[in-house]
Amino acid sequence: MKISKNNSLKIIVFTLLSIFFTTSVIAQSNNAKNNFWEHVRFGGGLGLSTGNNIFSATVAPSAIYDFDSQFSLGVGLNYTYFSRKNIAKSTILGGSIIGLFNPIQEIQLSGEFEQNHVSRNFDNPAIVDDEYWVSSFFIGAGYRTNNITIGVRYDVLYDEDKSIYANAWAPFVRVYF
Questions:
Q1: What's the number of CA atoms in the CB half-sphere (13 Å) around residue 92?
Q2: Domain 36-175, what architecture?
Q3: Were both Cys, which of 21, 110, 135, 168 would link to 140 (CB 3.0–4.6 Å)?
Q4: Which N-terminal residues, if any, form the signal peptide (predicted)?
Q5: pTM for this one?
Q6: DSSP category for residue 5
Q7: What is the dihedral sign for C-alpha 68, 72, 73, 74?
């Protein structure tokens, strides 16, 4: 039986959501006295890039729920605006689900599914404007100290023609408070 790319994405999302809700129910039933918000941490990222007629800005807030000292699961939103003078403008709006595992305090492994809507508008009327959805599934590893993790991640669904990233490998800095 052949599984299409769309079906495999649905399977990944369903699996992540199932793990989240199952773990959440188990954690809540084991310790009903704990307050949900005591286990939630907020963070995210900001990005700004300028130079040679290029401007790019990103805002990406996120929140994770710490099930224990090793496992966390969360959601995020992201918005990016990109402009290259006399060439094109684009907006990217999306969301993500992230799972974090810390086998030891200093090492963090992650899996992150990201779904983005891309809208590109070209200044040249000969190039057709377009809008599309693009999925990414990142597997990552990083060094963690306190609230900050620095590492690298790889997009296993990377599509050279549609991806919003320059290539499948991407460094990251993750901060949660």
A1: 23
A2: Beta Barrel (2.40)
A3: 110
A4: 1-27
A5: 0.76
A6: H
A7: positive
pLDDT at 34: 64
Distances (CA, A) of 70 to 30, 34, 48, 104, 153: 17, 17, 32, 8, 19
Residue 46's pLDDT is what? 86
Please name the residues in contact with 157: beta carbons below 8 A apart, sequence gap of 6 or more: 5, 9, 135, 136, 137
**Where in the chain are the domains?**
36-175
Give the per-residue SS3 of 47-100: EEEEECCEEEEEEEEEEEEECCCCEEEEEEEEEEEEEECCCEEEEEEEEEEEEE
Mean pLDDT, the chain cut into blocks of 10 residues (177 residues total): 56 63 56 79 90 92 96 97 94 97 97 96 95 96 95 95 87 93
**Residue matched to tokens 């966390």:** 72
Report phi then psi at 12, rounded to 5.
-60, -50
- In this prediction, residue 25 carries a pLDDT of 55
Classify burial at 174, counting beta carbons within 10 Å of its beta carbon; exposed 0-12, middle 13-18, buried 19 or more: buried
